[in-house]
Specification:
By secondary structure, the protein is of the alpha+beta class. It has two domains: about 40 residues, Arc Repressor Mutant, subunit A (Orthogonal Bundle), CATH 1.10.10; about 70 residues, Lrp/AsnC effector binding domain/regulation of amino acid metabolism (RAM) domain (Alpha-Beta Plaits, 2-Layer Sandwich). The protein is built from four helices and four strands. A four-stranded antiparallel β-sheet has the order 2-3-1-4. Helix 1 packs across helix 2 and helix 2 crosses helix 3. It is elongated, with a radius of gyration of 20 Å. The protein starts with a helix and ends in a 9-residue tail after the last strand.
Length: about 140
């Protein structure tokens, strides 16, 4: 499915507020409500929209200590290695490392316990971590 201008305007409106009503999106995008509804349905059916979600305040939910971790593995990590609530995103990457993880913690102590346990995976060969000092832009 190829996205046209109307689809993109609808998606942009949903990114701003996924709780907006069809009527509000129609008003904001100048697209008829029935068209907005049909297009959102089509975007969901075609897997363009995977789910509707929300963005939390990292600080207010106790996840203001953000870590980016690069991992070299000897082979693929088992799926359970990514089951921690602290692991927010995982990417396969090119270069010296195999994976990049985005992690969120309450504080350095919580992170320290996580990294000790994570490195117990026999597939984990090497890690390097970087602490995020300020969030300049974060999208879902």
């Amino acid at each position: 499915m190829e996205l046209d201008k109307k689809d993109k305007r609808i998606i942009l409106a949903l990114k701003e507020n996924s709780r907006a009503s069809i009527r509000d999106i129609a008003r904001d995008t100048s697209i008829r409500p029935s068209t907005v509804h049909q297009r959102i349905t089509k975007l969901k059916e075609n897997g363009i929209i995977e789910k509707f979600t929300l963005k939390l305040s990292n600080k207010k939910v106790g996840e203001n200590f953000i870590i980016f971790m690069f991992v070299t593995t000897t082979k693929d990590l088992p799926t359970k290695a990514f089951s921690s609530e602290h692991i927010k995103e995982v990417f396969g990457i090119t270069g010296e490392y195999d994976l990049m993880l985005k992690l969120k913690f309450k504080d350095v102590e919580e992170f320290n316990q996580f990294i000790i346990d994570f490195r117990k995976n026999p597939e984990v060969q090497k890690t390097i971590t970087m602490v995020g000092t300020i969030t300049m832009k974060e999208e879902l």
